[in-house]
Write a structure and sequence with these properties.
By secondary structure, the chain is α/β, with parallel strands linked by helices. 34% of the residues lie in helices and 21% in strands. The chain has five helices and seven strands, in the order E-H-E-H-E-H-E-E-H-E-E-H. Helix 1 links the parallel strand 1 and strand 2. Helix 1 packs across helix 5. The longest helix has 26 residues. The radius of gyration is 16 Å and the shape is globular. The relative contact order is 0.16. Bound molecules: 5-O-phosphono-beta-D-ribofuranosylamine (GRF). The site of 5-O-phosphono-beta-D-ribofuranosylamine has 13 residues, from helix 1, strand 5 and helix 5.
Length: 187
């Protein structure tokens, strides 16, 4: 059975959805103290935190990524699914052993609205429909092969936050299912 690791930085509702679908999660990795990390601990999943403390140009992205690679390798991980993991990893993450094996979900219909503020950007652009994209992650941010998308319409009374919450509902329904089929058919 391939071994799955999940990366979290936030509220961890995607991780909860994976647990609810009974995906076998071998390891959870967090870049900061967050609810996602606590959820992993509560469920008895092996987990580790490597804090991303420096948010300036002096952040050593290569070194951080080498560490991520090392801890995944050490645990014999086959697939790394980012689930709201907010540290951009260096290109070396997407080469070698993990080439084509890092997955991500992004709250927009890629290739539209890449980046950390996708829902806000779609909202401000006046889009009436956005959604989520499950994709293979590559060194280019929010790019790579698209595995699935779901559309979520904006309501008249939506705020950025309420729209994002409904997009997250779609992500929670889609991402665990896509990870499962990726592990069964693509490794
Ligand atoms: C999701 O919308 C994901 O696409 C984005 O962050 C959110 C993660 O939510 N990058 P959670 O931490 O799993 O609740």
């Amino acid at each position: 059975m391939p071994r799955l690791a999940v990366g979290v930085s936030g509220t961890g509702t995607l991780l909860e959805a994976m647990i609810a679908r009974k995906l076998e999660i071998s390891f959870v990795f967090a870049d900061r103290q967050c609810r996602g990390y606590d959820i992993a601990r509560e469920h008895g999943i092996a987990c580790l935190m490597l804090p991303h403390l420096v948010f300036t140009a002096s952040f050593d992205r290569d070194q951080y990524t080498r560490y991520v690679n090392y801890v995944l390798d050490e645990r014999d991980i086959d697939v790394f699914a980012m689930a709201g993991f907010m540290t951009v990893l260096a290109p070396l993450m997407f080469e070698g052993r993990y080439r084509g094996r890092v997955l991500n979900t992004h709250p927009s219909l890629l290739p539209k609205f890449k980046g950390a503020h996708a829902v806000r950007d779609a909202f401000n652009a006046g889009e009436q429909v956005s959604g989520c994209t499950i994709h293979v992650a590559t060194e280019e941010l929010d790019s790579g092969e698209i595995l699935a998308q779901a559309r979520v319409a904006r309501r008249d009374d939506d705020t950025v936050e309420s729209w994002h919450e409904r997009i997250k509902v779609a992500e929670r329904a889609l991402y665990p299912r896509i990870i499962e089929s990726f592990m069964l058919t693509r490794l």
